[in-house]
Amino acid sequence: MSRRIDLPADAAAAVQALRDASEERDVVVFKKSPICPVSTRAEFEFLTWAKSLAENDAVSLALIDVIAEKPLARGLTKELGIEHQSPQALWFRGGELLWHDSHGALTQARFAEAMGDAEASA
User: Fold this and answer.
1) 92 near 18, Cβ under 8 Å?
2) How far apart are CA 91 and CA 47, in angstroms?
3) In whole angstroms, what is the distance from residue 96 CA to residue 26 CA?
4) How remote is the C-alpha of 47 from its chain's centroid?
5) What does the mean pLDDT of the chain come to?
6) Which of 86, 100, 82, 4 is CA-nearest to residue 42?
7) Which CATH number fits domain 11-116: 1.10.3210.10, 3.40.30.10, 2.60.120.280, 3.40.50.1000?
8) 50-82 tens-digit pLDDT
């Protein structure tokens, strides 16, 4: 089963898709800029963490390029009532936004900690 999920371009529909998908499995959205060194570093951390996931880890991943998909990137956070950041991660579980963080806080350790938090609350 592929971990990658694609989101609709419409922000409201994307939020609903994330809420629906996270009823089955956790969903982590990673937003990044392809021209920002901070995003590049955070993307490395995110992808390295993602590669470490076991086959049976119940998590799906969505990636958003904040330049190529600007309306979605900004509309998503607006729909959720949170500030747009880049890089930024949004973790959904059980239809709700479990946590979000950005910039230097996006480390392999933080993603692993969030995964543990999600499993502990299961």
Assistant:
1) yes
2) 15
3) 10
4) 11
5) 91
6) 86
7) 3.40.30.10
8) 999 888 888 999 999 999 999 999 999 999 999
As a whole number of angstroms, the distance between CA 7 and CA 122 comes to 25
* For the chain, percent of residues with pLDDT exceeding 70: 93
Centre a 10 Å sphere on the Cβ of residue 74 and count the other Cβ atoms it contains.
15
Residue 1 has pLDDT above 50, yes or no: no
Strands 59-65 and 26-32, by their bridges, are parallel
What confidence tier does 114 reach under pLDDT thresholds 50, 70, 90? confident
Tell me the CA distances in angstroms from 110 to 8, 9, 20, 58, 68, one per residue in order: 27, 28, 24, 17, 27
